[in-house]
Amino acid sequence: MISKVCVMGWPIAHSRSPLIHNFWIHQLGIKDAVYERLPVAPKDLADTLRHLRDWGFVGANVTVPHKEAVYASLMRHDALAHRLKAVNTIVMSDHGLEGRNTDGYGFMANLADRAPGWRAGAGPAVMLGAGGAARAVAAALHDAGAPELRIVNRTAARAETLISDLSLTRARFFQWDDMATALDGANLLVNTTNLGMAGERDLDIDLAPLPSTALVTDIVYTPLETGLLKAARARNLATVDGLGMLLHQAVPGFEAWFGKRPKVTSELRKLVLADMGITEDKA
Ligand code: ATR
Hints:
Blueprint: E1 3-9, H1 17-27, E2 33-39, H2 45-51, E3 57-62, H3 67-73, E4 76-77, H4 79-84, E5 89-93, E6 96-100, H5 103-114, E7 125-128, H6 132-143, E8 149-152, H7 156-165, E9 171-174, H8 179-183, E10 188-191, E11 215-218, H9 227-234, E12 238-240, H10 243-258, H11 266-275
Parallel strand pairs: 1-2, 1-3, 4-6, 7-8, 7-10, 8-9, 10-11, 11-12
Antiparallel strand pairs: 3-5, 5-6
Helix pairs in contact: 1-10, 5-6, 5-10
């Protein structure tokens, strides 16, 4: 029997998860396993979850627009998925499907990998955005011991809801116009908004108030070097691009499905970059 895992989303044609997981399946010599794309329209989601096991799937990833709907449909979750009310990874247990969330893990593991000297506890973190992706990042930074989380968002209510939903006791909301105050003394600046993504306008922020020790990162990875990262690099600030978050969030799911913990290597990074049409000297 082939062990199948899928990524479900709508649309799903451009997902790079199959490239990542099939690379590890091959590299680690997992026999009779394959990872595929599963296009699932919102109206078909409940039916898909009901039949997942019958169709031969031993697990799944969940992406846009299904993360919250899968959370609501499943009976069992790990603590983090429960807290975020969003699922990106499904694991089969004897009791049925269990929803997990590895996005925050992926975010922190990427920073640990690419900026090993950086410490969450060393100073305030500034997060731009309060959407779906921001929730996992906010919880991860808070749990990692950021002494203060400053959330800058266009819509105040969304940031306030995020703070109360996740019980972030050390977080507070900043207006976009108060950016300079938010950046003052910060240890990290992370963009979780769509701004800077290919096809969207760039973030236009004056980074001057950031200390020279601050790390700047973006969860957007198309383009790999967003306008924000370019501006940070021009100021000699340390930067980490968002591709590693995608690579690292895949690790716990793979380990749960196949029993072997895969590694995020420069070879894997190059493979995904090549698929994006990018060659990087220093991957
Ligand atoms: P995702 O799931 O990718 O996080 P989302 O939930 O739609 O997507 O969230 C998008 C984030 O980008 C939000 O923080 C949004 O701000 P609002 O909460 O004010 O909508 C932010 N965003 C998107 N377009 C923006 C723009 N033109 N200017 C400022 N913020 C923007």
